[in-house]
Amino acid sequence: MGIEGANAAEIVASVRSLVARGGLEDGAVLPPVRLLAEQLRVNRNTVAAAYRQLAERGVVEGRGRGGTVVASPERLRGEGAFSPVPAIDLAGGNPDPDLLPDLRAAFGAVTYDPPLYGAPAVLPALRERAGELFCGDVDEPYGLSVTHGALDAIERLLGSTLVRGDAVVVEDPGYLASTGIVTAMGFRPVGVRIDQRGMDPVALETVLRDGARAVVCTSRAQNPTGASLDGERAAALRTVLEAFPDVFVVEDDHLSLVAGSAYERARSSSTARWALVRSMAKILGPDLRVAVVASDPKTEDQLRRRLVAGVNWVSHLLQATAAALVADPATPPRLAEARAAYARRAARLDAELRRHGLTSARPTDGLNVWVPLAGNEAFVVDELARRGWQVRPGSAYAVDPAHSRPALRVTTSTMSARDATHFAEALAGVLRIGAHGQPERAG
Questions:
Q1: Taking the model in full, what pTM does it have?
Q2: Cis, peptide link before residue 363, omega less than 30° from 0
Q3: Which residues, 6 or more positions from 342, have their beta carbon under 8 angstroms from its beta carbon?
Q4: Helix (H) or strand (E) holding 54
Q5: How confident is the model at residue 186 (pLDDT cuts 50, 70, 90)?
Q6: For the chain, which domains are there?
Q7: Of the candidates 338, 298, 295, which has an alpha carbon nearest to the alpha carbon of residue 147?
């Protein structure tokens, strides 16, 4: 492999050089600490320190029993997917464009005064509408910020509060772009298992006692599984967080106005630093890069300093469009139509799967359906693609892909009744064949 060095700094420099030259490719497994220490004739603590520094710089990532591997930019991918063969896209995670408002008409209808440097970062019209968006869900004093979407908000929030090397609790499985950002910023993602009611409170308490400094969670319509907190689970999470008031809690309510589930607050009354992020992307359109963020006043002040007017404030044209759409009387019925359509399409696929003796994770909310498997995930994904169906493997959403539970994420937001029937038939057929000619079982 060619790693050299007599101290931690030299080992770090050697690995970085190998990565830059292509001597270590994305996903390459580095030697175990003990083995490399023996090869280099240095103390094991020296190698461990080097690996820790590489992880803090985002060069490598620990995968538990999978070892330490060179970090891959694949972890930074968001929604949308490319298939090398013609296939029906059930992998993109996108909303149905037919259920989105017409942004071209909205642009033409807004009142827009071109801002100059020094203008308020938050457009007054959007600030007024944002108050309505958070009414009933945030009952303490809060500050309001606007960012370029939910991921931009999460990156800025974590960057304003944490230091490199801090551990950040993320859902496992969870949204791959959020986990990727945590890794790219030099933080350590620590996965907490989830079920269809959200994060496991016992597992959360364990990692918080181990020193995690922040929690990024989804209150409803979790991507990829469609899980939503119910009142009982949310109360259990608040009880856990009550004992850790200094832990920063970021709630990503990405589907908010289109989600079928009610919002349940995860942060506790003692949480000092918190933020509730509501993006407009999957509600009003992915190109409307606007998210409104309610947060404690100190966090809002730090965000405002990072969104200095004249440097990187969010376009007032986009803010004005979002404000106009939220205020438009035609928007609530359209959102209600989208909410019902997404629920109907997910339920339709679930029914078709059950006809073939297969099950999906229930209850579910949002744009995707999570299908647990009991066998070879990669084979199923590849075979479905060969048959004309593109889906996402569950391992793509795991903190440690090498040890994730096999599953598929199937986007149902645009799925027709015909496609639901034919896809369920195709999946059942693939599972019967199996990876080695043996019957493949669904979980």
A1: 0.83
A2: yes
A3: 96, 258, 260, 366, 367, 412, 413
A4: helix 44-56
A5: confident
A6: 8-71 (1.10.10.10), 76-97+332-433 (3.90.1150.10), 114-327 (3.40.640.10)
A7: 295
